[in-house]
Amino acid sequence: QVQLVESGGGLVQAGDSLRLSCTASTRTFSNYAMGWFRQAPGKEREFVAAIGRSSTHSTYADPVKGRITISRDNAKNTMYLQINNLKPEDTGVYYCAASFLGIPAAKETVYRSWGQGTQVTVSS
Vertex 14, ends 105 and 122: CA angle to 5°? Predict the structure, then answer.
């Protein structure tokens, strides 16, 4: 199982930008498709974005398209989530996850390894 650690969260104002990182403790990071999910207070966890093994393919949830960019650096075992023009509704705990499936996926069930999450709070 892959150990994942998220970082980069914090308290920001609406309109700000933030870059989250997810670092994996594995020598085979490039074998995994990766995803970002988030959970707002009182709500179920939801899909945000996912990226394939080699960055060729990515997919985004409709509510965040145009504001969020997912990327990865396989040499650093790290995945990123750039969030621009943050809104209060972006508030939540952001989780990264790893999947052996090669293609990016929105379904939680394909992800076998999860990080502990990083809190993002956007004030209006």
Answer: 65
What pLDDT, on the 0 to 100 scale, is given for residue 20?
Answer: 98
Sign, CA torsion 72/116/99/103: negative
Nearest CA among 60, 67, 57 for reference residue 120: 67
Parallel, antiparallel, or unpaired: how do β-strands 46-51 and 58-60 relate? antiparallel
Pairing state of beta strands 33-39 and 92-99?
antiparallel
Q: Strands 113-114, 46-51: parallel, antiparallel or unpaired by DSSP?
A: unpaired
Q: What is the pLDDT of residues 14-46, one digit of tens each?
A: 999 999 999 999 989 999 999 999 999 999 999
Gyration radius (Cα) of the chain, Å: 13
Place of tokens 């396989």: 74
